[in-house]
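[09:14] KT: can someone run the structure on this one? pasting the chain below
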Amino acid sequence: MIRLLIAVILSASFISAEVGAQTGGLTGRVLINSEPADRAVVFLQTPDGRLLSSPPTEKTIRQENLRFKPDFLVVPAGATIRFENHDSEIHNIYSKAEANRFDTGAHLPGTVKEVVLKNPGIVPLRCHTHQNMRGLIFVTPSPYFSVTDDRGQFEIRNIPYGSYRIEAWHPRLTEAESARGGQALELTTGAKVLRLQFHAEASRGIDLTETTGQDWASAVEQIHAELERAILLWRNGNSTAATSTVMSANSKYYGESGLREKIAQVFGADRALEHERRLDDFRKGVQGIGGPKPVTEAVLRQQVRALVEELTADVRKIAAP
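[09:31] RB: done, structure tokens below
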């Protein structure tokens, strides 16, 4: 597998505060693979990870023409989100985000629902009644943040002098990759330039938020169990049931669970296709099509072992801190 190396470079310079003031600011630019990164979130947090207090914040997201408007929003932890239904249909907005899980329930036309997002992290937005609706909220650990424009530029003002960590989030980066690129920052008088570099395996245009929070190890365990069951069915002479079991493992636990998509996002389409090819080779084996003749149980078990080991290695890398 060819490992993609994506460098995210953030350059920042301090903006001088007024004489006597104890606040400053940052400006800079975020680049991904030497290209400007739009909608990257640059934010500060405390060195020990504690939340920085924010003034009361309230933002509105409208449901209009079966869309979220805006479909991307950045707020500090503790912010209140007002969901306004401007459609003539009932909505049911929810998020499965681990740190900010919520479900508004039936949301009637012309009414408002409010949700408080207490914890930092990404909050994918969905609607139970309209599956094509997509939105995303990024909750920062402090009120000091900025979103890059289409040239990758950002600006953060009125930052109290002190010690911070500066980090950047982008849907192309995993959480671990974002964290590894963060740096300590001393905000004082004068001017400085920072360079943050992130290494990612997802290719350009990938949005890793689509499958956030899934238990991929469990999906691999289910695939393993189904393939073992297929071997037992094959050994008992029921190749038809064995074939059906393998096909179900491929479509349900590898495909529908989102594991295939996640592997393609993180490691590339070729990697996802390789796993699918191994599953298909196993299916041909229990079906008696192609491969070594005669098919033996030892060969089938070796195929299962190789596939499960590779899938396990992939999900461990995906979940690595």
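[09:33] KT: thanks! The first helix runs from residue 175 to 180.
[09:34] RB: yep, looked fine to me
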